[in-house]
Design a protein that fits this description.
The strands form 2 sheets. Strands 1, 2, 3, 4, 5 and 6 form a 6-stranded mixed sheet that branches. A 4-stranded antiparallel sheet has the order 8-9-7-10, with helices on both faces. By secondary structure, the chain is of the alpha+beta class. It is built from 8 helices and 10 strands. The chain starts with a strand and ends with a strand. Helix 1 links the parallel strand 3 and strand 4. The relative contact order is 0.18. The chain binds cytidine-5'-monophosphate. Cytidine-5'-monophosphate (C5P) binds next to strand 2 and helix 4. The site of cytidine-5'-monophosphate has 11 residues, from strand 2 and helix 4.
Length: 270
């Protein structure tokens, strides 16, 4: 089979991210509700004898096209060879998957059954690719049934924050896990109440590392109709939730008009 396969590597969003402890090897124990957006990097895989890679798109600058790229390492881990093109539409190092999403998408596209945690803590959940609770250091992924569709704005202020720096700036590592998830029949109101009672424990630490993140959160909080504003992953991307897609689109336009240098997208999360 030599037909190219085209696949989307969707942005992942941590609606919640609780840090509940730290292992002896330094890795942190997490409890996170992860959902996926309808925007992402576009990957095309064409089987062949040798592994090669090409990167294009808005965020192509500085993305390696060799074994430093997680998608390359995923192909190697899967024993797959051929040409991979990545249209880099997502800001990398931004708390919404980036390299992990690309790597997971390669594994899914080639049907690999490998220990994907070795590629990074976010790769297993990105392999599942739909709403899921992530625990352990990222290796335990439990899909969430019947979660609602969320309308959101994702904003990345082009601030690069290194994940280890954010974990290092954490003041407390043994926080409470998420409370019990909403009932299967829960509607949006119940989900929002639940989400508001949860946290991203990395948010304060990320703001300490990159104070500009606070501006993004306040910008989101100032948009009409916003239901909740929070950071995803270790930042710097933040999200706002809205009652409808058109409310999210209006908010995205308003934010983009004020800050054309920020990456800002209205999305559907599920
Ligand atoms: O696994 P990944 O490469 O995404 O992790 C980047 C860094 O984030 C790790 O080197 C570690 O410092 C930190 N990390 C952590 N606990 C996790 C996931 C990541 O401390 N569960």
């Amino acid at each position: 089979m030599t037909e190219p396969i085209s696949v989307l590597a969707p942005a992942k969003v941590n609606l919640t991210l609780h840090v509940t402890g730290q292992r002896a090897d330094g890795y942190h124990l997490l409890d996170s509700l992860v959902v996926f957006a309808d925007v992402g990097d576009r990957l095309t895989l064409t089987p062949g004898n040798v592994l090669s890679m090409e990167v294009s798109g808005r965020f192509a600058d500085g993305v390696p096209t060799d074994a430093r790229n997680l998608a390359w390492r995923a192909a190697e881990l899967a024993g797959w060879s051929g040409h991979i093109t990545i249209e880099k539409n997502l800001p990398h190092g931004g708390g919404i998957g980036g390299g992990s999403a690309d790597a997971a998408t390669v594994l899914r596209a080639v049907g690999a059954d490998v220990d994907s945690l070795t590629l990074g803590a976010d790769v297993p959940v990105c392999e599942v690719g739909r709403a899921a609770r992530m625990t352990g250091i990222g290796e335990t992924v439990t899909p969430v049934a019947d979660d609602p569709t969320f309308y959101a704005v994702l904003v990345n202020p082009a601030l690069h924050v290194a994940t280890p720096d954010v974990f290092a700036a954490l003041r407390q590592r043994d926080n409470a896990p998420m409370s019990e998830l909403p009932r299967r029949v829960a509607g949006m109101r119940e989900w929002l109440d639940w989400l508001r009672a949860q946290r991203n424990d990395l948010q304060e630490a990320a703001i300490a590392v990159a104070p500009g993140i606070d501006k993004v959160l306040r910008g989101l909080e100032a948009t009409p109709g916003v239901l909740l504003a929070r950071m995803s992953g270790s930042g710097s991307t933040c999200f706002g939730l809205y009652p409808t897609l058109s409310a999210a689109q209006l908010a995205a336009s308003a934010i983009s008009a004020g800050r054309p240098d920020w990456w800002c997208e209205a999305v559907t999360l599920s």
